[in-house]
Design goal:
Strand content of chain A: under 5%
Structural class of chain B: alpha/beta
Number of domains of chain A: 2
Number of helices of chain B: 14
Largest sheet of chain B: 6 strands, mixed
CATH architecture of one domain in chain B: 3-Layer(aba) Sandwich
Shape of chain B: elongated
Strand order of the largest sheet of chain A: 1-2
CATH superfamily of one domain in chain B: NADH-ubiquinone oxidoreductase 51kDa subunit
Helix content of chain B: 25-40%
Radius of gyration of chain A: 22 Å
Order of helices and strands of chain A: HHHHHHHEHEHHHHHHHH
Distance between the termini of chain A: 61 Å
Helix content of chain A: 55-70%
Number of strands of chain A: 2
CATH class of one domain in chain B: Alpha Beta
Strand order of the largest sheet of chain B: 1-14-13-17-15-16
Strand content of chain B: 15-25%
Largest sheet of chain A: 2 strands, antiparallel
Number of helices of chain A: 16
Number of strands of chain B: 17
Shape of chain A: globular
Oligomer: heterodimer
Largest interface: A-B, 46 and 73 residues
Amino acid sequence: MSLLHVSSPHFHKPVSSVEQVMKQVLLATIPGVLALTWFFGPGTLINIVFGSILALGFEAWALWLRGKDYKSPLKDHSIVVTATLLCIALPPYAPWWLITIGIGVSVLLGKHVFGGLGYNPFNPAMVGYVVLLVSFPLQMSSWTEPRGIGEVPGIIDAFTALFASSAYDGVTAATPLDLFRQNSGMLFEDLMSTTPELAGPIAGLGWDIVNLAFLAGGVWLLRQRIFTWHAPIGMLAAISLCALIGYDEGSSAGGGSVLFHLFSGATMFGAFFIITDPVSSAVSNKGRLIFGALVGVLVYLIRVYGNYPDAVAFGVLLLNFAAPLIDQYTQPTVYGTKKVEVDE
Amino acid sequence: MNQIFNIHGGIHPPERKELSNPGRVIDATTPSKLVLPITQHIGAPARPIVEVGDAVLGGQMIAEAQGPVSVPVHAPSSGTVTAIEARAVPHASGLTDTCIEITLDGLDQSIAYEGVEDWRAQSKTLLLERIRLSGVTGLGGAGFPTAIKLASDRDKGIHTLIINGTECEPYITADDTVMQCFAQQIVEGSEILAHIVGAQTVLFAIEDNKPEATDAMRQAAAALDMAEVVTFPTKYPSGGEKQLIEILLNTQVPSGGIPADLGVLCQNPSTAIAVRDAIIDGRPLTHRITTVTGMSLNEPGNRRVMLGTPIGELLAHAGFHAEQADRVLHGGPMMGFAVTDLAMPVVKITNCILAPTRSEIPPPQAQQPCIRCGMCAEACPASLLPQQLYWYARAKDQEQLERHNLMDCIECGACAYVCPSHIPLVQYYRSAKGALREAVKEQVRSDNSRGRFEARQTRLEQEAAAREAKRAARKAAAEARAQAGDDPVQAAIERAKAKKAQQEESS
């Protein structure tokens, strides 16, 4: 009998693999994607399917170019997660070339130029998103009206928009964050009550439900121990705190309420699905808390004072740069290294 | 007391302890041959004092301790020495070591044992010498000579003796069984240990998954005033010495230190029995209780095994289906190492032989890239950042490895257990630790030679300076004489002249 000679430990946690982690992240996006689909039609869903197929193709190509085995990395679902996250962030009726450029940038520039899975210093989905946002601002801000205000596009509309965008005659509308940023004269309360898009139960029709749905998925991931609470809570707490400080009882120049910021735009999606990307964030729990909090501060500042209506992508990318620095100062105290006062 | 504290991290792997039926001791088969390595402990190897052809009796010393950190080896049973040569021994690196092979005669005759009478009245030195001569080492896994541990701790003052019956490693039930079956002997041994080190408190620490052992220990310990049985929740690796001290006493052993720095001494229950046997019965360490388990065995269980029994024979005795197993482990599944040769013997540190089937412990999966998910950091009982250590180990960045306290890793394997990328993290740390130790040694060597060079330089300079001073002194003296009127040159010329004149006269 030939004996297997391997090093300890010989036990491994059952059903624990990169594949499994990625699968759980994908599952956790379902409530959010369903909410988006309910309020904005099948656009996001179709984007995700289209984007994932493209991403697998790009990934295989990149692996082949790099002379790597491309069968097992394709099976780890990591690229599908990247594609899904990017497509959730894109406007639901984006043309095919926009998605292709975004996915291509994410996979090639966001991931493979740095060495593939585990080596990327930046969140690949956000790299793709920001490249699109600064290059194609018009297409990137074309959101449709949510169910309840306008007609929700159907499947045929979605495919037309994807492959023949010139023939697609969709209605684009401003998102609550756009409306908030463009507001110049109305009191916050008035803006919220008189604008139909902002008439949702919490913070804008459709968007608050979408945020709640992503929150639900995120809490599930937290319970599955895919990540710890530090980064999401850091970000949400920082946004809340900033909004609390900046909220001046609702003047037209004020910063908007806490609830408005928590349940608008990409807040929950960002807090639980973007900044929790472990590869590009800080390492220790303390580091992740700081990382999340700083993203939250940036998101608030850019939303209120910046040129873009939302800022999760910028906040994340800027903090990706800062992650190694945060790591340098947030190393946890190792067993037995606590400084004890010595009585001499 | 009785308050329990939490440790960082930890995992809950499947325990699979009921498989080996804790609480029952099976007498293992008597093998035809025993193979006894001369190094079954940490420290200098023992020196064989028998020769091939010698007849030996059970309990007879066959190799003597060499140097202070060493223990002797004794024959477990009677027979003839048939070989003294290098054989494969249980070791994580698959090393060979000099072994004494004894072919047993089956009579199991032994020397007459003589215990220490009234041990409380004896000097600690005598008791320690008895323990040392009886070959007692820690039986929990590391195999450190017990007498050294007791003696070195004595200077620092020990207040608490912890008998570590945690046994957090899955599958193993040797300590559980020993506590259930020999609680009285453990208490007696603990009393001797406490007496030697001067401890005022004895804590029997047991995880809460061993209620029978806890009951047995409570009953036995009732007679000892300073003793207390403490239970705490089951979690791996609570049985690590440092972790256990934090659980019981809420303090941490300083990095690079030992428990004695806190006035604490930890011993395994079986070690306490070995100490008791050495002092009260005068019997050396020749047998131990070993868990022989795994689904590839018909009859898993705890066996009383002669040291030196080949692992293969022990497995055969338990009904081993070799075709179902592709690895045999020495120790448990978390920290044990793979046995490379079934002819390897059971030694003093062998608390478990595990022969799992392929489905029970499947072959390792292919390694995937680290995604820095941080699950390892959540599991690490030492609060390290295993993912960072992994990157730095791969980069051979020794500065960062030291900064991230690599040396405080206890190699428990919790990080690798939870790693979704199936990275054999502990293997990276072991190798990096080796390199770091080597670098430290190299540093010491170069510091030493620099020291020697500088000392020589100083000495040469001093010598030169001394010579210079002497010369200057001579010069000064000569000048002084010249000034006083007796010019040495003039004197020499006159002496020469006088000599010449003398020569001319005589010729």
